[in-house]
Amino acid sequence: MIKENLIEVQKKIADACERTSRNPKEVTLIAVSKTKPNEMLEEAISCGQTIFGENYVQELTQKIEDFPESIHWHMIGHLQRNKVKYIIGKVDCIHSVDSVRLAKQIQDEAQKKDICQDILLEINVGMEESKWGFTLENIQDALKEISLFSNIRVKGFMTSAPYVENPEENRLLFRSLKQCFEETKQYGYPNVSMEHLSMGMTNDFEVAIEEGATMVRVGTAIFGERNYN
Predict the structure, then answer these.
(1) How many beta carbons lie within 10 A of that of residue 164, not counting itself?
(2) HSE of 138 in the Cβ direction (CA atoms, 13 Å)?
(3) pLDDT tens-digit profile of 108-140?
(4) Element housing 53 (H / E)
């Protein structure tokens, strides 16, 4: 069913773009493959999917070894500072940079390897106590510090909106992050390009696209429900 699921998700992306006069090429589909076996990823790859998102460092590093270099990996889960060294230079982008201390750790590890690591800053737009991230109120102060790190490129923002039955409930949250995203472009911070807005998952990615998402992180709609046992 993965092929059919991918076709359906891509159709929904295209439809959401059409509703808002956007080009579907502006939206990157990240297939969230955490806890999924390699066979499922292989099937998705055979259908043309080459970008995957993982939540756990150990699983991510193993899958990087198992698949060819043509596959692109994104770290989308909460990242502990002591795990940074295992993924620097191996992932296209780290979406979940939720503190200045974590950004500094990424800077230090990237500097050791003489590379520049792309990151997104995670914003907790829903102000949920169970989630990590900056707030819309403190993100500019954080950027003033993080933008001084020469081995990091801040490519934009990421958020995980609250899980809701009706995705319309998250529309205003996505809209507020998009507004902050556009405002941030005007400040001209060094090492900050503000190209990507990673928001929207299986239950709300269409609304997220309508509100400006350039990356959507979709797992269940592609691979089915997860088994955490």
Answers:
(1) 14
(2) 12
(3) 999 999 999 999 999 999 777 777 899 999 999
(4) strand 51-54
Residue partners of 123: CB distance under 8 A and separation at least 6: 133, 134, 135, 136, 139, 157, 158, 159, 177, 180
d(CA 102, CA 148): 14
Residues 56 and 76: beta-carbon distance below 8 Å: no
Per-residue pLDDT tens over the stretch 199-227? 999 999 999 999 999 999 999 999 998 66
Q: Which class for 152: exposed (0-12), middle (13-18), buried (19 or more C-beta within 10 A)?
A: buried
pTM value surpassing 0.85: yes
The pLDDT of residue 66: 98
2-223: CATH class: alpha beta
- The size of the chain, in residues, is 229
